[in-house]
Amino acid sequence: MSEDTDSTMSTLIGAIYDCALAPDHWPETMRRICAFLDCGGGELWIADPATRRPRFACSWRQPGPATRMSLGTFPYAMEAHARRIAAAGDPDAPLVLHRMRGHANVLAGEGHGTVAPLPGGGDALGLVVLDRDDSLGWLGLARHRSAGLFTGREERLARLLAPHIRRAVAIGDVLELRTQERDALADALDGAAVGIGIVDRDGTLLHANLTARRMMQQDGPIRCVNGRLSAQKHPDTAALQDAIATSRPMAWHDRRGIAVSLGGPADPPALAQVLPLDAGSRSPGILSRAAAVVFVTPAPRNEAAGLAAVARCFRLTQAEAALLGRLVAGTALPQAARDLGIAATTARTHLARIFSKTATSRQAELVGRVHRMMPPVRAE
Protein backbone atom coordinates (compact mmCIF):
# COMPACT_ATOMS: atom_id res chain seq x y z
CA MET A 1 0.00 0.00 0.00
CA SER A 2 1.06 3.59 -0.58
CA GLU A 3 1.71 5.89 2.36
CA ASP A 4 -1.54 7.74 1.65
CA THR A 5 -3.53 4.50 1.57
CA ASP A 6 -1.84 3.27 4.74
CA SER A 7 -2.57 6.55 6.55
CA THR A 8 -6.19 6.60 5.38
CA MET A 9 -6.69 3.00 6.49
CA SER A 10 -5.18 3.66 9.93
CA THR A 11 -7.55 6.58 10.46
CA LEU A 12 -10.47 4.53 9.13
CA ILE A 13 -9.71 1.63 11.49
CA GLY A 14 -9.78 4.06 14.41
CA ALA A 15 -13.19 5.32 13.29
CA ILE A 16 -14.43 1.74 13.00
CA TYR A 17 -13.49 0.97 16.62
CA ASP A 18 -15.14 4.21 17.74
CA CYS A 19 -18.42 2.74 16.42
CA ALA A 20 -18.22 -0.07 19.00
CA LEU A 21 -18.95 2.45 21.76
CA ALA A 22 -20.99 4.88 19.65
CA PRO A 23 -23.16 2.98 17.13
CA ASP A 24 -24.60 6.27 15.83
CA HIS A 25 -21.18 6.88 14.22
CA TRP A 26 -21.70 3.99 11.78
CA PRO A 27 -23.38 5.99 8.96
CA GLU A 28 -20.44 8.42 8.78
CA THR A 29 -17.97 5.55 9.03
CA MET A 30 -19.88 3.77 6.26
CA ARG A 31 -19.42 6.88 4.12
CA ARG A 32 -15.68 6.76 4.75
CA ILE A 33 -15.49 3.03 3.98
CA CYS A 34 -17.38 3.63 0.73
CA ALA A 35 -15.03 6.46 -0.22
CA PHE A 36 -12.02 4.28 0.58
CA LEU A 37 -13.27 1.43 -1.62
CA ASP A 38 -14.88 3.69 -4.28
CA CYS A 39 -18.46 2.56 -3.56
CA GLY A 40 -21.68 4.42 -4.12
CA GLY A 41 -23.53 3.08 -1.07
CA GLY A 42 -23.23 0.70 1.82
CA GLU A 43 -25.07 -0.82 4.74
CA LEU A 44 -24.45 -2.75 7.91
CA TRP A 45 -27.01 -5.21 9.23
CA ILE A 46 -27.24 -7.50 12.25
CA ALA A 47 -30.20 -9.85 12.05
CA ASP A 48 -31.69 -12.98 13.57
CA PRO A 49 -30.84 -15.80 11.13
CA ALA A 50 -34.11 -17.59 11.90
CA THR A 51 -36.42 -14.65 11.12
CA ARG A 52 -34.02 -12.40 9.16
CA ARG A 53 -35.41 -9.51 11.15
CA PRO A 54 -32.77 -6.85 11.81
CA ARG A 55 -31.66 -6.03 15.35
CA PHE A 56 -29.44 -3.27 14.00
CA ALA A 57 -29.28 -1.65 10.59
CA CYS A 58 -27.64 1.44 9.18
CA SER A 59 -26.72 2.59 5.73
CA TRP A 60 -25.13 5.39 3.80
CA ARG A 61 -27.04 6.87 0.87
CA GLN A 62 -30.27 5.15 1.87
CA PRO A 63 -32.17 3.90 0.01
CA GLY A 64 -29.26 3.04 -2.24
CA PRO A 65 -28.65 -0.04 -4.37
CA ALA A 66 -27.05 -1.92 -1.49
CA THR A 67 -30.04 -1.29 0.76
CA ARG A 68 -32.53 -2.47 -1.88
CA MET A 69 -30.33 -5.50 -2.45
CA SER A 70 -30.25 -6.47 1.24
CA LEU A 71 -33.97 -5.93 1.60
CA GLY A 72 -34.37 -8.42 -1.24
CA THR A 73 -32.17 -11.45 -1.69
CA PHE A 74 -28.69 -10.49 -0.46
CA PRO A 75 -29.22 -11.79 3.13
CA TYR A 76 -29.74 -15.29 1.77
CA ALA A 77 -26.47 -15.10 -0.16
CA MET A 78 -24.59 -13.76 2.89
CA GLU A 79 -25.98 -16.57 5.04
CA ALA A 80 -24.71 -19.15 2.56
CA HIS A 81 -21.40 -17.27 2.30
CA ALA A 82 -21.04 -17.33 6.10
CA ARG A 83 -21.32 -21.12 6.05
CA ARG A 84 -18.73 -21.39 3.25
CA ILE A 85 -16.11 -19.17 4.89
CA ALA A 86 -16.65 -20.86 8.25
CA ALA A 87 -15.99 -24.23 6.64
CA ALA A 88 -12.91 -22.84 4.85
CA GLY A 89 -11.56 -21.13 7.96
CA ASP A 90 -11.30 -17.81 6.09
CA PRO A 91 -13.64 -15.34 7.88
CA ASP A 92 -12.18 -12.32 6.06
CA ALA A 93 -13.07 -13.54 2.56
CA PRO A 94 -15.43 -11.10 0.78
CA LEU A 95 -18.40 -12.12 -1.32
CA VAL A 96 -18.18 -10.32 -4.68
CA LEU A 97 -21.28 -10.25 -6.84
CA HIS A 98 -19.66 -10.48 -10.25
CA ARG A 99 -17.75 -13.61 -9.20
CA MET A 100 -20.95 -15.45 -8.32
CA ARG A 101 -22.38 -17.91 -10.78
CA GLY A 102 -24.75 -16.26 -13.23
CA HIS A 103 -23.58 -12.70 -12.45
CA ALA A 104 -20.66 -12.18 -14.82
CA ASN A 105 -22.54 -9.39 -16.62
CA VAL A 106 -23.58 -7.43 -13.53
CA LEU A 107 -22.52 -4.11 -15.07
CA ALA A 108 -25.26 -4.60 -17.63
CA GLY A 109 -27.75 -5.35 -14.84
CA GLU A 110 -27.94 -9.04 -15.79
CA GLY A 111 -28.05 -11.91 -13.35
CA HIS A 112 -29.99 -15.07 -12.57
CA GLY A 113 -28.41 -16.46 -9.42
CA THR A 114 -29.41 -16.23 -5.76
CA VAL A 115 -28.88 -12.45 -5.69
CA ALA A 116 -30.91 -10.01 -7.75
CA PRO A 117 -28.81 -7.72 -9.99
CA LEU A 118 -28.43 -4.10 -9.00
CA PRO A 119 -30.91 -1.75 -10.68
CA GLY A 120 -29.14 -0.05 -13.56
CA GLY A 121 -26.14 -2.37 -13.29
CA GLY A 122 -23.25 -2.46 -10.88
CA ASP A 123 -21.19 -4.65 -8.61
CA ALA A 124 -21.51 -5.50 -4.92
CA LEU A 125 -19.15 -6.73 -2.20
CA GLY A 126 -20.17 -8.26 1.11
CA LEU A 127 -18.33 -9.16 4.32
CA VAL A 128 -19.64 -11.36 7.13
CA VAL A 129 -18.97 -9.32 10.28
CA LEU A 130 -20.84 -11.41 12.86
CA ASP A 131 -21.64 -15.12 12.75
CA ARG A 132 -23.35 -16.64 15.78
CA ASP A 133 -26.27 -18.98 16.23
CA ASP A 134 -28.49 -16.06 17.25
CA SER A 135 -27.00 -13.30 15.08
CA LEU A 136 -25.72 -12.86 11.54
CA GLY A 137 -24.10 -9.56 10.64
CA TRP A 138 -22.90 -8.38 7.27
CA LEU A 139 -21.50 -5.33 5.59
CA GLY A 140 -22.76 -4.77 2.05
CA LEU A 141 -21.10 -2.32 -0.38
CA ALA A 142 -22.32 -1.41 -3.86
CA ARG A 143 -20.80 0.51 -6.75
CA HIS A 144 -22.41 1.85 -9.89
CA ARG A 145 -21.43 0.38 -13.23
CA SER A 146 -19.62 3.62 -14.06
CA ALA A 147 -17.05 2.69 -11.37
CA GLY A 148 -16.50 -0.76 -12.92
CA LEU A 149 -16.16 -4.10 -11.17
CA PHE A 150 -14.51 -4.63 -7.82
CA THR A 151 -10.90 -5.55 -8.49
CA GLY A 152 -8.38 -7.58 -6.55
CA ARG A 153 -7.14 -4.34 -4.96
CA GLU A 154 -10.51 -3.53 -3.36
CA GLU A 155 -10.92 -7.15 -2.28
CA ARG A 156 -7.51 -7.05 -0.56
CA LEU A 157 -8.34 -3.77 1.18
CA ALA A 158 -11.71 -5.19 2.26
CA ARG A 159 -9.90 -8.20 3.70
CA LEU A 160 -7.67 -5.89 5.74
CA LEU A 161 -10.66 -4.00 7.10
CA ALA A 162 -12.74 -7.13 7.78
CA PRO A 163 -11.21 -8.25 11.14
CA HIS A 164 -11.47 -4.73 12.56
CA ILE A 165 -15.10 -4.38 11.50
CA ARG A 166 -15.85 -7.81 12.98
CA ARG A 167 -14.30 -6.89 16.32
CA ALA A 168 -16.09 -3.53 16.47
CA VAL A 169 -19.43 -5.15 15.62
CA ALA A 170 -18.90 -7.95 18.17
CA ILE A 171 -17.99 -5.48 20.93
CA GLY A 172 -20.94 -3.26 20.07
CA ASP A 173 -23.31 -6.23 19.95
CA VAL A 174 -22.20 -7.45 23.39
CA LEU A 175 -22.55 -3.94 24.81
CA GLU A 176 -26.03 -3.66 23.31
CA LEU A 177 -27.10 -7.00 24.80
CA ARG A 178 -25.73 -5.94 28.18
CA THR A 179 -27.61 -2.67 27.88
CA GLN A 180 -30.82 -4.57 27.17
CA GLU A 181 -30.18 -6.89 30.14
CA ARG A 182 -29.43 -3.90 32.38
CA ASP A 183 -32.59 -2.12 31.24
CA ALA A 184 -34.66 -5.26 31.85
CA LEU A 185 -33.22 -5.55 35.36
CA ALA A 186 -33.90 -1.87 36.04
CA ASP A 187 -37.51 -2.30 34.90
CA ALA A 188 -37.91 -5.28 37.25
CA LEU A 189 -36.46 -3.34 40.19
CA ASP A 190 -38.73 -0.39 39.41
CA GLY A 191 -41.73 -2.63 40.07
CA ALA A 192 -40.70 -3.29 43.68
CA ALA A 193 -42.64 -1.61 46.49
CA VAL A 194 -39.50 -1.23 48.61
CA GLY A 195 -36.77 1.25 47.83
CA ILE A 196 -33.68 -0.44 46.40
CA GLY A 197 -30.30 1.26 46.17
CA ILE A 198 -27.07 -0.29 44.88
CA VAL A 199 -24.01 1.34 46.43
CA ASP A 200 -20.25 0.98 46.49
CA ARG A 201 -18.13 0.68 49.64
CA ASP A 202 -18.15 4.47 50.13
CA GLY A 203 -21.93 4.66 49.90
CA THR A 204 -21.89 6.18 46.41
CA LEU A 205 -25.26 5.46 44.81
CA LEU A 206 -24.78 3.44 41.62
CA HIS A 207 -28.45 2.71 40.95
CA ALA A 208 -31.79 3.48 42.60
CA ASN A 209 -35.12 1.98 41.65
CA LEU A 210 -38.28 4.03 41.12
CA THR A 211 -39.50 3.68 44.72
CA ALA A 212 -36.13 4.83 46.09
CA ARG A 213 -36.05 7.79 43.69
CA ARG A 214 -39.52 8.83 44.80
CA MET A 215 -38.46 8.58 48.45
CA MET A 216 -35.59 10.95 47.72
CA GLN A 217 -37.78 13.38 45.78
CA GLN A 218 -40.60 13.43 48.34
CA ASP A 219 -38.58 13.89 51.55
CA GLY A 220 -38.84 10.22 52.43
CA PRO A 221 -36.52 8.30 54.75
CA ILE A 222 -33.55 8.46 52.34
CA ARG A 223 -31.92 11.03 50.10
CA CYS A 224 -28.85 11.40 47.89
CA VAL A 225 -26.25 13.92 49.08
CA ASN A 226 -23.18 14.55 46.91
CA GLY A 227 -23.81 11.26 45.18
CA ARG A 228 -23.93 9.23 48.42
CA LEU A 229 -26.94 7.43 49.83
CA SER A 230 -27.98 9.19 53.04
CA ALA A 231 -30.86 9.31 55.51
CA GLN A 232 -33.00 12.35 56.17
CA LYS A 233 -31.57 12.65 59.72
CA HIS A 234 -27.85 12.98 60.37
CA PRO A 235 -27.57 10.24 63.06
CA ASP A 236 -29.34 7.80 60.74
CA THR A 237 -26.96 8.75 57.91
CA ALA A 238 -23.94 7.91 60.06
CA ALA A 239 -25.43 4.53 61.00
CA LEU A 240 -26.42 3.76 57.40
CA GLN A 241 -23.03 4.64 55.90
CA ASP A 242 -21.25 2.77 58.68
CA ALA A 243 -23.32 -0.33 57.88
CA ILE A 244 -22.41 0.01 54.19
CA ALA A 245 -18.70 0.56 54.91
CA THR A 246 -18.44 -2.41 57.26
CA SER A 247 -20.54 -4.82 55.21
CA ARG A 248 -18.78 -7.91 53.97
CA PRO A 249 -20.01 -10.83 51.84
CA MET A 250 -21.73 -13.33 54.11
CA ALA A 251 -22.02 -17.08 54.04
CA TRP A 252 -24.92 -18.43 52.01
CA HIS A 253 -26.82 -19.41 55.17
CA ASP A 254 -26.58 -15.93 56.76
CA ARG A 255 -27.71 -13.37 54.21
CA ARG A 256 -29.86 -11.15 56.45
CA GLY A 257 -27.46 -8.20 56.30
CA ILE A 258 -27.46 -5.25 58.68
CA ALA A 259 -30.67 -3.46 59.70
CA VAL A 260 -30.68 0.31 60.28
CA SER A 261 -33.70 2.14 61.71
CA LEU A 262 -34.53 5.38 59.88
CA GLY A 263 -36.49 8.27 61.42
CA GLY A 264 -37.29 9.39 64.95
CA PRO A 265 -40.35 8.69 67.13
CA ALA A 266 -42.40 11.36 65.36
CA ASP A 267 -41.48 10.14 61.86
CA PRO A 268 -43.20 7.42 59.82
CA PRO A 269 -41.36 4.17 60.56
CA ALA A 270 -38.84 2.95 57.98
CA LEU A 271 -36.07 0.38 57.96
CA ALA A 272 -32.95 0.04 55.79
CA GLN A 273 -31.56 -3.45 55.28
CA VAL A 274 -27.96 -3.45 54.01
CA LEU A 275 -27.14 -6.68 52.18
CA PRO A 276 -23.47 -7.17 51.17
CA LEU A 277 -22.66 -8.32 47.64
CA ASP A 278 -20.01 -10.78 46.49
CA ALA A 279 -17.99 -9.12 43.70
CA GLY A 280 -16.18 -12.30 42.70
CA SER A 281 -18.56 -13.35 39.94
CA ARG A 282 -19.17 -9.96 38.33
CA SER A 283 -17.42 -8.76 35.19
CA PRO A 284 -15.64 -5.37 35.11
CA GLY A 285 -17.84 -2.32 34.74
CA ILE A 286 -19.74 0.20 36.79
CA LEU A 287 -21.64 -2.39 38.81
CA SER A 288 -18.41 -4.25 39.57
CA ARG A 289 -17.95 -1.50 42.17
CA ALA A 290 -21.19 -2.47 43.90
CA ALA A 291 -20.56 -3.44 47.52
CA ALA A 292 -24.10 -3.68 48.86
CA VAL A 293 -27.78 -3.48 48.11
CA VAL A 294 -29.83 -1.33 50.47
CA PHE A 295 -33.53 -2.22 50.80
CA VAL A 296 -35.59 0.60 52.33
CA THR A 297 -38.99 -0.41 53.69
CA PRO A 298 -41.27 2.63 53.96
CA ALA A 299 -44.08 3.23 56.41
CA PRO A 300 -46.60 0.36 56.57
CA ARG A 301 -48.52 -0.11 53.36
CA ASN A 302 -52.26 -0.58 53.26
CA GLU A 303 -52.74 -1.95 49.77
CA ALA A 304 -56.20 -3.38 49.32
CA ALA A 305 -55.25 -6.10 46.81
CA GLY A 306 -52.34 -7.35 48.91
CA LEU A 307 -54.34 -7.33 52.16
CA ALA A 308 -57.20 -9.16 50.46
CA ALA A 309 -54.80 -11.88 49.35
CA VAL A 310 -53.38 -12.23 52.87
CA ALA A 311 -56.91 -12.37 54.33
CA ARG A 312 -57.85 -15.15 51.91
CA CYS A 313 -54.69 -17.03 52.77
CA PHE A 314 -55.62 -17.12 56.47
CA ARG A 315 -59.36 -17.58 55.77
CA LEU A 316 -60.30 -14.42 57.63
CA THR A 317 -63.91 -13.29 57.67
CA GLN A 318 -64.84 -9.97 56.10
CA ALA A 319 -65.02 -8.34 59.53
CA GLU A 320 -61.65 -9.76 60.57
CA ALA A 321 -60.08 -8.62 57.29
CA ALA A 322 -61.43 -5.09 57.80
CA LEU A 323 -59.90 -4.94 61.27
CA LEU A 324 -56.60 -6.32 59.99
CA GLY A 325 -56.45 -3.56 57.39
CA ARG A 326 -56.77 -0.89 60.08
CA LEU A 327 -54.11 -2.50 62.28
CA VAL A 328 -51.64 -2.89 59.40
CA ALA A 329 -52.15 0.80 58.59
CA GLY A 330 -50.91 1.64 62.10
CA THR A 331 -54.27 2.34 63.73
CA ALA A 332 -54.60 1.44 67.42
CA LEU A 333 -57.25 -1.16 68.29
CA PRO A 334 -59.67 1.24 70.06
CA GLN A 335 -59.56 3.70 67.15
CA ALA A 336 -59.93 0.85 64.65
CA ALA A 337 -63.08 -0.26 66.47
CA ARG A 338 -64.50 3.26 66.28
CA ASP A 339 -63.60 3.55 62.58
CA LEU A 340 -65.40 0.29 61.85
CA GLY A 341 -68.41 1.15 64.04
CA ILE A 342 -68.03 -1.88 66.30
CA ALA A 343 -67.71 -2.29 70.06
CA ALA A 344 -64.26 -2.56 71.62
CA THR A 345 -65.14 -6.04 72.91
CA THR A 346 -66.09 -7.14 69.40
CA ALA A 347 -62.79 -5.79 68.08
CA ARG A 348 -60.89 -7.74 70.74
CA THR A 349 -62.81 -10.89 69.77
CA HIS A 350 -61.92 -10.38 66.08
CA LEU A 351 -58.28 -9.80 67.03
CA ALA A 352 -58.13 -12.99 69.10
CA ARG A 353 -59.46 -14.97 66.13
CA ILE A 354 -56.94 -13.28 63.81
CA PHE A 355 -54.12 -14.21 66.23
CA SER A 356 -55.34 -17.81 66.21
CA LYS A 357 -55.60 -18.06 62.43
CA THR A 358 -52.23 -16.39 61.77
CA ALA A 359 -50.36 -18.21 64.59
CA THR A 360 -49.35 -14.90 66.20
CA SER A 361 -49.86 -13.56 69.72
CA ARG A 362 -49.01 -9.84 69.55
CA GLN A 363 -50.09 -7.01 67.23
CA ALA A 364 -46.48 -6.19 66.30
CA GLU A 365 -45.87 -9.82 65.40
CA LEU A 366 -49.11 -9.89 63.40
CA VAL A 367 -48.29 -6.71 61.46
CA GLY A 368 -44.75 -7.93 60.76
CA ARG A 369 -46.04 -11.22 59.39
CA VAL A 370 -48.56 -9.48 57.14
CA HIS A 371 -45.88 -7.16 55.77
CA ARG A 372 -43.64 -10.10 54.93
CA MET A 373 -46.50 -11.64 52.96
CA MET A 374 -47.52 -8.47 51.15
CA PRO A 375 -46.77 -8.51 47.40
CA PRO A 376 -43.40 -6.80 46.81
CA VAL A 377 -44.61 -4.98 43.72
CA ARG A 378 -45.29 -1.27 43.73
CA ALA A 379 -48.91 -0.10 43.73
CA GLU A 380 -49.46 2.66 41.15
UniProtKB/TrEMBL annotation:
GO terms for biological process: regulation of DNA-templated transcription. Residues 313-370 form the HTH luxR-type domain. InterPro entries: Sig_transdc_resp-reg_C-effctor, Tscrpt_reg_LuxR_C, WH-like_DNA-bd_sf. Transmembrane segments: none annotated. It comes from the Bacteria. One of its GO terms (molecular function) is DNA binding. SMART domains: HTH_LUXR. This is HTH luxR-type domain-containing protein. It comes from Rhodovastum atsumiense.
